[in-house]
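Help! Submission page says 'invalid entity' but I think these are all valid:
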Amino acid sequence: MRTVVIIGTGLLGSSFGLAVKRAGIFDWVVGVSSPAVVAKAIEIGAVDVAMTLEEALPTADLVLLAQPVKRILSLLERLDLHLRLGTLVTDVGSTKAEICAAASTFLTRSTFVGGHPMAGKEIRGPEGASAELFVDRPWVLTEPNEALISIVEAVGGKPVLLGPEEHDRMVAFSSHLPQLLSTALGSYLSDKQVTSVSGPGLRDMTRLALSSFDLWQDILETNSPNVDSAIAGLISELEGLRSALKSGTAGEYFERGASLSAGLRQGQ
Amino acid sequence: MRTVVIIGTGLLGSSFGLAVKRAGIFDWVVGVSSPAVVAKAIEIGAVDVAMTLEEALPTADLVLLAQPVKRILSLLERLDLHLRLGTLVTDVGSTKAEICAAASTFLTRSTFVGGHPMAGKEIRGPEGASAELFVDRPWVLTEPNEALISIVEAVGGKPVLLGPEEHDRMVAFSSHLPQLLSTALGSYLSDKQVTSVSGPGLRDMTRLALSSFDLWQDILETNSPNVDSAIAGLISELEGLRSALKSGTAGEYFERGASLSAGLRQGQ
């Protein structure tokens, strides 16, 4: 493939630009974004040239949609006419069911594969971009597309094949629930004056709470039944742990928790 | 002061040994611990000499009790007779109300000040020890003792004066609740097969879950009413967030959470 068009050159889009340029797998990296953001992406070497959406799309062999979920949803409604027949289109949106449904409705000339690299940072925008961002991180693909699997591997990611509904159910547990727990903990403690007696544990547990609702609103709204059920499940778990502390059986919770945590650290 | 006796030369005891030796504030660091643990503490240079409890206590100008809370409670019942009049005794136990009550019952010849350095690691034992462990970390003291404040400052800690009951109420929020949340999250996800779709957020949120119940049992049992009420409060917060997600007002939770988290990072 010759040309990749990255729509949205923020943290993920610019990191993808840096990573494909390092891997040397495209001749041209075209950026479509607001003037300041795409200028910064060019400055850091993530993008070769800025174009408007209408200019960029016909040049694309691969289109990467790297905007928030609802922006991707609205883009999908108006891409198709501008694309060459058979262009590969993917995205990095954090939820997949609504995006894949919209793509299957609106994209008739191109091949869409939903994507979700499990990578991120609190620093948004091209300022936080790194060619290393995807290295050794899972990158979910909703279809077994050979070309895209090669590209994900070339930027260091680990392709994971998962249908859109299954993806959304899983990330409610692995990503959305941890975010909401961190937010709830930070919110709960905000009037408790704990800062002078806190250690590294509380710091870790509230890092995600730095994330802004701007970023999360789309994600949570496009995955609400799964998110609601994950919170409900965690509340039950906490009620169970509370009872176990009273009956002296909390050790089982610590064992299960330690085992999951150790497993994550072994990359199992 | 000439001699510090450290009872329990695990992570905290050995780190204290390394830190006071670097600061040069004692002539002798005596370790009392099980043979293997004290041998390791000597090997890493945290302790000069190993003694039995009965040998060590009469030599002490300062005694540091660095064992789990219930071991400290039982030690307090039998220290007094062996100490010289006026010896300063402190501890690093994670809860303070029961320990300070026991000290005031059983220590009549010595001066007891409860202590709690807000520092730790998942690596237990002298193997994890570091002279840096206390640097810039809060170190709660239950009484305004000048000598002890100087020692805490000499090892890099930030003395925080807090009564034992107030301490226990605060750490239920700042330390015990984050631990239990991490454990509950890990336990809840242990049958959900999330490992292949997880990112750095879940890793952070489950780091504390690696801690063992061995270490936590004493802490949670000696602070159970505060811990129970902190869990109940967090459950209410999660129920509130769940409703807010449905009514479109979750942004407030994100703002409060981000503000607490940013405050912790500014050391406010």
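Support: the input was valid. A stray whitespace character was the problem, and the output above is from the cleaned input. Residues 3-162 of chain A form a domain with the Rossmann fold fold (CATH 3.40.50.720).
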